[in-house]
Amino acid sequence: MQIKLIAALVTSVLAISAQAADGFVVKDIRVEGLQRTEAGTVFSYLPVKVGETLDADKSAAAIKALFATGFFKDVRLEEQNGVLIVVVEERPAIAKIDIVGSKDLTADQIKDGLKQSGLAEGRIFDKAMLDRAAQEIKRLYFGRGKYAVEIDTTVTPMERNRVAVAFNIKEGDVAKIRQINIVGNNVFPEKKLQGLFQLSTPGWFSWYSKNDQYSKQKLAADIETLKSFYLNQGYLEFNVDSTQVSITPDKKDIYLTVNITEGEKYTVSDVKLAGEMMVPQAELQKLISVKAGDVFSREALTETSKKIGDRLGNDGYAFANVNAVPEVDKEKHTVAFTFFVDAGRRVYVNRININGNTRTRDEVVRREFRQMEGAWYAADKIQRSRERVERLGYFSDINVETPAVVGTTDQVDVNMSLTEKATGNIMVGAGFSSSEGLILSGSISQNNLFGSGNALAVKINSGGINKVYSVSYTNPYFTPDGLSMGYDLYRRDTDTTSLSSVSSYKNSTTGVGARLGIPLNEKDALSLGMSVEHAVLTVNSSSPIQYQNFVSEYGNANNTLLLNIGFARDSRDSLTYPTKGMLQRVYGEVAVPPGSLKYYKVNYQQQWFKPLSKTFTLMLNGEFGYGGGYGTNTDLPFFKNFYAGGVSSVRGYDTGTIGPKYWDTTSGQLIALGGNERVVGNAEILFPMPGLENDKSVRLSAFVDAGAVFGPGNQENVNGVGVNDGLYSKFSFQDIRFSTGMAVNWVSPVGPLKFSLGMPLNPQPSDKKQVFQFTMGQVF
Predict the structure, then answer these.
(1) DSSP of 662-715
(2) Which of 135, 100, 93, 105 is nearest to 117 (CA)?
(3) The pLDDT of residue 13 is above 80
(4) End position of a domain, from candidates 291, 314, 342
(5) Residue 407: which region, alpha, beta or left (left: phi > 0; alpha: psi -120 to 50)?
(6) Are residues 625 and 601 in the same domain?
(7) Which among 661, 363, 292 has a CA at the least distance from the CA of 500?
(8) Domain boundary among 170, 193, 208
(9) Which residue range(s) make up the domain with 76?
(10) How many structural domains compose the chain?
(11) Long-range contacts of 133-142 (CB under 8 A, 24+ apart)
(12) Angle at the Cα of 81 (from 75 to 85), degrees rounded to 5?
């Protein structure tokens, strides 16, 4: 282009100079050769106007300006009787871009990348852009591990000074990481260090995770992980000397080599606090995770600085700065730290601004805030406010910022940006349960009715055993201080005649009730409720004799007044993907006069989550239930019995089959009765699905379950199997069943899905085993 420009300048200047060595006065200007470009565009770049004198300098400037537009590949200036003639030859326009042979990337994805190189349909064609475009396409494929990609370009002229550009792509195969070498390690085996890397050689889940494909970003993250590992093990002088990435000539195999220097292991000799602390030093001292004599750990150091900063933030010191300054003794391999604390100025919150809530009313969000306007800044209250807004379930994304107020030194604003999601739901679907069979369900619900935060739901669930029809309305802020009020109208039909392993009966219950939720503090809540139920029982000749006796004594229709009370303490960090915290619940119901039945049931559950690492979480769950009759009713009504076994209690055993049984002479089978005592325990190691580490909707687990159901009564032996005498079995540790296995929990778009493979550890001849169990679809 530079040679063409110089030639054009020389030619034009000589052409004009030959006729007017001292320049000439421009009487008119004419442009020739234009096809697409407007003449006004040319006039705007010319440094000379009609009536002015054009000399050699202005001629050179005009040609340079017109070439600089990029519209022309040739420009000449001529003079004829005082008329300046600008002769141009336009560059062709790109009429279309064809992508041929692309499979891994779509044509649109490639064209979007070409735009970054300046190549797009409708733009001016430049051959220099073609090479940049080909390199851009290669870059896109390199990002997908295809280093053997070949790009051939073809430019075809078209009418009206246009061209068609075609990119013929041979993608080639994906290059795989064949080996990762770590050189210089003496303390830790190479295999252990390789296990820290996200990048890996091909494995079982590489087809999904793509971790066997080289990525510069992933390698940088792995190097940082390696550094953190050594620094947390005391190797203060650890260093990554170099990294080499080599690829075989056929561009199919990649070899990574990381050269490291481990250095010596350091211990902490002393820890001190200094600076403006603004809170009692003894209180900050308790937050220090690093102690004299400990092995040096950067993680513990960072955690300590954060704890101290957070503690100061809770008292209004939003901009507190905590720095750990080391004093290294290389001879003794020890290090002492002084935490210098600069609390800064204490600040208070000026305004709380909420943005993005187009449907949800401001008051619905603001009533969840624990940080108040005009109060001292408190980091823990702001975090708690965010958690409470997130628990509403109305928003898909929540971002909180605390910028300083312009022109002040002691004020900040709290800006909460929200992204709303749909809270209404109209669903018609089907699911399947290993115990229920086909489940048809439908619901119309709105959890944020007219943006008020109130919830209304109409649900229908039709399973083979349980059918539920309900209408519910809940006002979470019935009073300004957070008391919730809800109302329910429901009908529940139970038909166990299709279950060969559970006692046969039918029960149809219609009820109406009201409930009240009373928050005691941020984690504790009390619930009260009252409902009136009308139940119709149906038994047959194959039903257990005690079922038939119950109907004979109390009739097949009963009215019950139920009082419900419950207490819950919930400190879990998430409702759907908990990794730490505890859930503790106790709840019960009691049937009181003037109802015809008098009984009580009490349930207790404690669930505990403890992170074992960044990916593994220990979950312990314990449940206990007890019930009975009082007054003239001596027993718990049979349709209120407890059951165990199945995907939600002790996996590996058929649903509801653990516990007391009786011998059904008609069918010649042992039939589960249930009982008035229930004990269930679960221990699980929860971890992400390989390849889906960042997906918070699906988790795997390895579990051990235990459980049993008991009741008053005596046992006898029938055909070599211990069964009861028509009542229940007595409590015995020998009757507790155990199982172990693997499970998958997935909060899918259609509802929660649970799958388990359970192996009973101590099954008895009377037990029914079911290794694979699952529930698909929402069961209300």
Answers:
(1) EEETTTTEEEE--BSEEEEEEEEEEEEPTT-TT-TTEEEEEEEEEEEEE-S--E
(2) 135
(3) no
(4) 342
(5) left
(6) yes
(7) 661
(8) 170
(9) 2-90
(10) 6
(11) 133/167, 134/167, 137/110, 137/113, 137/167, 137/169, 139/113, 140/105, 140/109, 140/110, 140/113, 141/104, 141/105, 141/171
(12) 15
104 & 19 share domain: no
Q: What is the pTM of this model?
A: 0.61
The strand ranges marked E within 503-543 are 506-519, 524-538
Q: Which amino acid is at 141?
A: Y
- Per the CB < 8 A criterion, the answer to whether 119 and 133 are in contact is yes
Other C-beta atoms within 10 Å of 520: how many? 11
pLDDT tens track for 374-399: 999 999 999 989 988 888 878 878 89
Mean pLDDT, the chain, whole residue set: 83
* pLDDT number for residue 442: 53
**Greater pLDDT, 180 or 447:** 180
| CATH number of the domain bearing residue 146 | 3.10.20.310
What pLDDT was estimated at residue 443? 56
Contact 285, 206 (CB under 8 A): no
Q: Is the dihedral of CA 122, 123, 125, 128 positive or negative?
A: negative
Domain co-membership, 320 together with 372: no
Give dist(CA 425, CA 337) in Å, integer.
56
Whether residues 62 and 193 share a domain: the answer is no
Tell whether the torsion through CA atoms of 36, 41, 43 and 47 is positive or negative: negative
Per-residue model confidence (pLDDT) at position 760: 93
* Residue 455 structure tokens: 């919830």
pLDDT at 332: 92
Question: Contacts for 150-158 with beta carbons within 8 Å, 24 or more apart?
Answer: 155/125, 155/127, 155/130, 157/92, 158/95
* Same domain as 695, residue 617: yes
> 448 and 415, same structural domain?
no
Q: How far apart are CA 512 and CA 644, in angstroms?
A: 28
Look up residue 217 and give its two tokens: 């970003």
DSSP string, 104-159: SS-HHHHHHHHHTTT--TTSBP-HHHHHHHHHHHHHHHHTTT-TT-EEEEEEEEET
Q: Which residues contact 487 (CB under 8 A, 6 or more apart)?
A: 472, 473, 474, 512, 513, 514, 515
Contact in structure between 607 and 624 (CB atoms under 8 Å): no
- SS3 assignment, position 580: coil
CA distance 184 to 243: 12
Contacts 24+ apart (CB under 8 A), 714-718: 718/663
Same domain? 618 vs 681: yes
At 42 the pLDDT is 81
CA distance 33 to 675: 98
Contacts of 385 (CB under 8 A, 6+ apart): 368, 369, 370, 371, 400
Ramachandran quadrant class, 624 (left: phi over 0; alpha: psi -120 to 50; beta: rest) = beta
Q: At a CB cut-off of 8 Å and minimum separation 6, what does 2 contact?
A: none
How far apart CA 259 and CA 244 sit, in angstroms, is 8
pLDDT at 666 over 50: yes
Q: Does residue 671 share a domain with residue 614? A: yes
Taken as a whole, the chain contains a residue count of: 780
Q: Which amino acid is at 64?
A: K
117-170 pLDDT, tens digit per residue, is 778 887 888 777 888 888 888 888 887 788 888 889 888 888 878 889 999 999
Reported as a single tens digit per residue, the pLDDT across 529-581 is 999 999 898 887 777 777 788 888 888 888 889 999 999 999 888 777 788 89
